[in-house]
Amino acid sequence: MAELKNDRYLRALLKQPVDVTPVWMMRQAGRYLPEYKATRAQAGDFMSLCRNADLACEVTLQPLRRYELDAAILFSDILTVPDAMGLGLFFEAGEGPRFERKANTIDTIKALPIPDPEDELGYVMKAVSTIRRELNGDVPLIGFSGSPWTLATYMVEGGSSKAFEQIKRMMYSEPAALHMLLDKLADSVTLYLNAQIANGAQAVMIFDSWGGALSHAAYREFSLRYMQKIINGLTREAEGRRVPVTLFTKGGGLWLEAMAETGADALGLDWTIDIADARRRVGDKVALQGNMDPSALYAPIPRIEEEVASILAGYGEGTGHVFNLGHGIHQHVDPEHAGAFVKSVHELSRKYHK
């Protein structure tokens, strides 16, 4: 594998010194870029794009050609694992992801297989190895998965949900069934992330998009517990380097201290939390990633720079901060605004790294 030329993202996650604060964007390969839209049209549909290693590689690299980002992230979807369990993932225009079959009874959950990541998810591993090769050591490659709770919400509901009525009904009335599902998902995600690492991912991230929908006690029992199980089973060193893991619970600001106890190297923050407060709360236990409101990228460029400066000042001096948006970049953002965002992080952060 090629020598890594820019490792500041990995260094910041491990709280090692950096020259400037590293930056990347969640969903940086996506619909705000005209070149992405062209490649997706070439693929035919979203899952065909995910399943074609060369095209998945192409869209992963597109934002890196435009911007001086400090990391690439695998182009894939969090729902590849439930799809590989046989639920039949498809996307409806304007409706988002749907499943042909639900995992909403004890019998359907018992019947779910744990997918072999090199077989049923081999197309993801091919994409990882292709991207890693084509990056040629320019920046690290991030692998990822959805959290067990987040994946379970789609599997029980049959798709996206606002109220999470069906999975919460299961949680309160049939907790044993839900625990069985979450346990299978934790095992599946552990295998999936370890296979990504074996194929070249240099850091991994667990996206708990819907953990914030849970009550205080339920979050620990049904979300954090299973992310902890994954972390306990992850490969933490490859190619002679530590493989950092980042946990991101959207709406998870209440639970930062508990998340920091899991052994994760970093926590992702959404925009609802003050980063200075987050740093005080977790101390030196973990690095922090975040946390600008993605909608701030609609602002005029001088206002974007003010927002970046404010978050950098909130974190303060020293390493352990990876700058990012508090969630994925919106599809209608002007690509020039995204570029100004990336540039301003590097320029304005230099003074915090002596």
TrEMBL record:
It is found in: Cytoplasm. Keywords: Cytoplasm, Decarboxylase, Lyase, Porphyrin biosynthesis. One of its GO terms (cellular component) is cytosol. Pathway: Porphyrin-containing compound metabolism; protoporphyrin-IX biosynthesis; coproporphyrinogen-III from 5-aminolevulinate: step 4/4. Pfam families: URO-D. It catalyses: uroporphyrinogen III + 4 H(+) = coproporphyrinogen III + 4 CO2. InterPro entries: UROD/MetE-like_sf (IPR038071), Uroporphyrinogen_deCO2ase_HemE (IPR006361), Uroporphyrinogen_deCOase (IPR000257). Residues 22-31, 142-158 form the Uroporphyrinogen decarboxylase (URO-D) domain. It is an enzyme of class 4 (lyase). GO terms for biological process: protoporphyrinogen IX biosynthetic process from glutamate. The record marks D77 as: Transition state stabilizer. Its EC number is 4.1.1.37. One of its GO terms (molecular function) is uroporphyrinogen decarboxylase activity. Substrate binds at R27, Q28, A29, G30, R31, D77, Y154, S209, H327. NCBIfam families: hemE. Homodimer. Belongs to the uroporphyrinogen decarboxylase family. Catalyzes the decarboxylation of four acetate groups of uroporphyrinogen-III to yield coproporphyrinogen-III. This is Uroporphyrinogen decarboxylase. It comes from Shewanella mangrovi. The gene is hemE.
